[in-house]
């Protein structure tokens, strides 16, 4: 039992399936009161009914007030899990880039804009961002996703270093491949890079609970991602060469 979760008011966005649904279920198992958010109202309602939670459908960054009311006036933990996995490169339409930026980064900004005043007043609050290992490293064939996930990680890190002394705890969850609809939609690049070591959403949820218990900022459901992150920082050219070889392999497989 993670004590901070007992009777905590928790919001999980993008929780109609995948990692979000696994998080919602796991938090409920720990005794939390959970608001299940998803653009798909039916999916949100199904998960909420299963765990005894409350469904709040709609845009992830625009439901803070409604979710707070559903939880009796206080959100203790906000899981910014909703995201879009966008492939392509510079040729991708501006509208697609803007959607990736809006969902993967600005939704986090808008949510914390609503959450921080109450959290700072009371001296506690917890923000959990599902970032992806693409935010630590990159993902071949997916420039909008990689760039915006780097932005999500940067924003989570900024929140942590700015507000930690005022009782705000922040976690960045950075899995590699997870067996979800997003992985299934990632095409040949996902099959090449992510599928071989993909894990179940429930394994991500367990890693998140352990990260909360340990009060770790960086939560790595795939521990090897930390080694790749260190290699990227300390021998960047070698790391780029290795990723370029994957890119070439992807091109030759097409």
TrEMBL record:
Cited Pfam families: adh_short
Molecular function as annotated in GO: oxidoreductase activity
Nucleotide-binding listed as a keyword: no
Signal sequence region: none
SUPFAM superfamilies listed in its UniProt record: NAD(P)-binding Rossmann-fold domains (SSF51735)
Keywords: Oxidoreductase
CDD domains for this protein: SDR_c (cd05233)
Matches recorded under InterPro entries: NAD(P)-bd_dom_sf (IPR036291), Sc_DH/Rdtase_CS (IPR020904), SDR_fam (IPR002347)
Similarity annotation: Belongs to the short-chain dehydrogenases/reductases (SDR) family.
Name of protein: SDR family oxidoreductase
């Amino acid at each position: 039992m993670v004590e901070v979760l007992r009777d905590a008011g928790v919001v999980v966005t993008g929780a109609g399936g995948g990692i979000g649904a696994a998080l919602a279920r796991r938090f409920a198992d720990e005794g939390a009161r959970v608001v299940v958010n998803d653009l798909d109202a039916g999916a949100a309602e199904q998960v909420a009914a299963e765990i005894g939670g409350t469904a709040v459908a709609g845009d992830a960054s625009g439901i803070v007030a409604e979710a707070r009311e559903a939880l009796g006036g206080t959100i203790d933990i906000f899981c910014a899990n909703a995201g879009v996995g966008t492939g392509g490169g510079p040729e991708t339409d501006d509208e697609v880039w803007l959607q990736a930026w809006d969902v993967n980064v600005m939704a986090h900004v808008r949510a914390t804009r609503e959450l921080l005043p109450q959290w700072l007043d009371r001296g506690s609050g917890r923000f959990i961002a599902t970032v992806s290992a693409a935010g630590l490293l990159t993902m071949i064939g997916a420039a909008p996703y990689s760039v915006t996930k780097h932005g999500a990680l940067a924003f989570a890190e900024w929140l942590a270093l700015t507000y930690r002394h005022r009782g705000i705890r922040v976690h960045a969850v950075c899995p590699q491949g997870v067996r979800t609809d997003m992985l299934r939609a990632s095409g040949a690049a996902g099959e090449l890079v992510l599928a071989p070591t993909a894990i179940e959403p429930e394994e991500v949820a367990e890693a998140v609970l352990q990260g909360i218990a340990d009060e770790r900022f960086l939560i790595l459901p795939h521990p090897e991602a930390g080694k790749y992150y260190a290699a990227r920082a300390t021998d960047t050219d070698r790391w780029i060469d290795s990723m370029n070889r994957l890119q070439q392999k992807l091109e030759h497989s097409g």
